[in-house]
Amino acid sequence: MKKIFLSVFVALFSIQAICQVATSLHQNFDASCVTTSGMPSGWSTFNPITSTIPNGMWSCAPTNGRAGTPGMQCTGTYSSAFHLDTSFLLTPALNLSGYSGSIYLQFDSKTTNIYFGDTLHVEVVYDSTHPDSGAHVDLTSSLAPVFGPGDSTGWVTHVADLTPFKSTPFYIAFLYNSPVTSGNIWYIDNVNTTVSPVTLNVPGINNRQLQLSVSGCSTGNEVGVFYRVTEAGEYQVSLFDVTGRIVYKNMLEIKDIASEIELKGLNLNPGVYILKLGNESVSGFTKVFVR
Fold first, then answer.
1. Buried b (16+ CB within 10 A) or exposed e, 198-210
2. For residue 91, which of 34, 172, 204, 243 is within the disulfide window of CB 3.0 to 4.6 Å?
3. Domain boundary among 168, 194, 220
């Protein structure tokens, strides 16, 4: 009788464990983060630095999500002081093996400033109890920030391909590292899995797009850009890293309808960037690969 009871208990426990693995992700935090003490069901945080200040961990942001709705945030400061921090925000376990085609991660994010030494990462991890030491795949370099007409507030939508990870359950980890010399705030909202993600070719403001492309080989200090506009005037040029942070911004007085500009003194790390050129009525985007 004891063996039968034990077998039934193990079977029930196994079924419960399987049910806790999500087959999709659709989290806008609106219901779970109406107060700072909330936490979405199945989500968790991890910090390997045991002496870290609690406020440095991820927490709900009731009014700091996109469009003022609830979201999540992580900060590298406490009482106006910087502190060392390594904070993981982990989704529920995901099992995407039921998708026959491609499947993507899509989420919105925003950062307040750029500081030397702090890093933002999005990773696939397989151990939620020790995501810092277990197997992981960093998706950060493959993230594509997608800009649209509503992105003037600093929010950016990101897309990452999860198709290669369908065969094994995993977690998505949002990781923020901050040093003792700087502090930042990283906000995220609307974290979803989708088979039809938004793309870089979203319509620009008033559905007008200017032609923009990178010319030559980009380096950490110099990027050449060819443009074609319909009218001369003042345009803003911006460079974003893969997390959506602005790493360069300047105003240009464009006199020629089609020409080339050179951005110098950039001090960029190797990686993928998005370059935006535009004004209040028209904009264009192109990827920049820095070796």
1. beeeeebbeeebb
2. 172
3. 194
